[in-house]
Automatic annotation (TrEMBL), chains A, B:
UniProt source species: Arthrobacter ramosus
Family, as annotated: Belongs to the HIBADH-related family.
Domain of life: Bacteria
Domain 3-hydroxyisobutyrate dehydrogenase-like NAD-binding: 169-286
Keywords: NAD, Oxidoreductase
Enzyme Commission no: 1.1.1.60
Cell membrane among keywords: no
Domain 6-phosphogluconate dehydrogenase NADP-binding: from-to ranges: 7-166
MF GO annotations: 2-hydroxy-3-oxopropionate reductase activity
InterPro entries, alphabetized: 3-OH-isobutyrate_DH-rel_CS, 6-PGluconate_DH-like_C_sf, 6PGD_dom2, 6PGDH_NADP-bd, HIBADH-like_NADP-bd, HIBADH-related, NAD(P)-bd_dom_sf, Tartro_sem_red
Protein name: 2-hydroxy-3-oxopropionate reductase
Gene3D superfamilies according to UniProt: N-(1-d-carboxylethyl)-l-norvaline Dehydrogenase, domain 2, NAD(P)-binding Rossmann-like Domain
Matches recorded under Pfam families: NAD_binding_11, NAD_binding_2
Length: 298, 298
């Protein structure tokens, strides 16, 4: 990587944030990080980063501040208050929120950032833990064009597809559709696999031929084998996808758009969670299809 | 292609069958074809094939008989009766049905073929008109292993992915899941696109970034641009996909498998058809999402 080094702060060193921070370090950017649990900070330090005692210390000298937290209330807590990003970042710094949150909250927070003299982008990602580790996330960016281009070299250290999709909030809107499509595609694959198993078809052979035709998808490539093996370690947890589908259905309602399959997928994800599988990978939708079909082992 | 030439008969020279026959000719196999409309036979002859006056004449000297017709009753008509495949094919010939029909009918017809001394395979395809023209169809084959291997060189002239998925009928079962996944994936994409348009997001940019992440699919790659442009020329007609989804839902019922998203997709495909769009491409599901969302031009 030949990008000009930028001082980067990363707030939220979880399943996604930590490998993203590590890839920023690998690309030559100094990274200061903060996380609520010290263990993750220690892992960042082991990788060559600097640990901070709080958000304020992490962001005070940063050129680019990346936040990666689970939900809208979490990000509001990180940016607001006396220890928050807005009160402590340099004027002119870039705040890039990679969290998946409600588009309307994203728009409000970007406006608040601008009032504090901070440039704001929403930049949620797709590609999961594997994409975060491999540095080939898809990043959907909302905000001003000049700001997107200014931080592009930094984003390209963590993602292979970095696309400016519109003004503030647009990144979150596109991420919402990503989550709609992914949930629905996993559910369709789960239904297909249970159907094939019920008909005693060779599912491995079936997957190979399905992948070669119009039914092929990244979900099929990445999830089918583990679903057949009933391995549901996350990956991306049902709890988080359930949260995201709440965003999708609310945003569709607000826009007056009917999303019959997306809404059904949201219901099914909620049902998987209600059955106690919230901490499994979202491909655990298959457990629900099995249960609905009387083919559940449990 | 270096395959040993086999005398091939192709019954059904439609949107799929004709380009498949042409690719067989290109691979060096002599092809005799029959179709109800003479125009298609003339096109086959122009490409170097031989036209027949009926099924009986087409199949009488063939090593391999390929049928490609729309539905279960059509194939029953082609194979049965004094002018049909079973009464006229050589003993030991291979009958390869590339039509998409009910798995149970496929099993019955294969048994009838064996009684007539004919080796039967079900070999439905995925990849659409483009795949048929380019010779890179995905072919899901049900039947005896030895029979599959015997005709594999012929199938490889029309498809790039040829997979033996199980005994007679298995090809149709896998094709049913293919059609479930494809219909659902198109509908999810349609919902996503209408959602993005309602939020005034740059759909071209959004597609680029969605394609790079876990939401990526062959449907998105092949259909998104034409859906955004509202171009719905087939391709694969709503009428045919509606027929296929009837097969899927019936087969799921028989196996006691719940397919909530597949069943919803079947309902929506039926609704698009009921609104008079049966002859459009299946991506016309988008017209229904628009109508449900009050965003229809008409």
């Amino acid at each position: 990587m030949n990008a000009v080094p930028r001082k980067v702060a990363v707030i939220g060193l979880g399943i996604m944030g930590l490998p993203m921070a590590v890839n920023l370090l690998k690309a030559g950017h100094p990274v200061t990080g903060f996380n609520r649990s010290q263990g993750k900070i220690d892992q960042l330090v082991s990788a060559g980063g600097v640990g901070a005692s709080g958000t304020a210390e992490a962001v005070k000298d940063a050129d680019v501040i990346i936040t990666m937290v689970p939900d809208s209330p979490d990000i509001e807590a990180v940016v607001s208050g006396p220890d928050g990003v807005f009160a402590n970042a340099r004027k002119g710094a870039y705040w890039v929120d990679c969290s998946t949150i409600r588009p309307d909250v994203s728009v409000q927070l970007a406006a608040a950032a601008r009032k504090a003299g901070i440039k704001a982008l929403d930049a949620p990602v797709s590609g999961g833990e594997t994409g975060a580790i491999e540095g080939n996330l898809s990043i959907m960016v909302g905000g001003e064009t000049a700001d997107v281009e200014a931080v592009r070299p930094v984003l390209e250290a963590i993602g292979s597809t970095v696309v400016h999709v519109g003004p503030s909030g647009s990144g979150q809107t596109v991420k919402a559709t990503n989550q709609l499509i992914v949930a629905g595609t996993i559910e369709l694959l789960a239904e297909a696999l249970v159907f094939l198993e019920a008909h005693s078809v060779d599912t491995q052979a079936a997957i190979k031929v399905l992948a070669g035709g119009l039914a092929g998808s990244r979900v099929l490539d990445r999830k089918a084998a583990s679903m057949i093996a009933r391995k549901f370690e996350p990956g991306f947890r049902v709890d988080l996808h359930h949260k995201d589908l709440g965003i999708v259905t609310a945003a569709a309602r607000e826009a007056g758009v009917a999303i019959p399959l997306g809404a059904m997928a949201a219901q099914l994800m909620g049902a998987v969670r209600a059955q106690g599988h919230g901490s499994l990978d979202h491909s655990a939708l298959m457990l629900l299809v099995e249960r609905l079909s009387g083919r559940s082992a449990s």
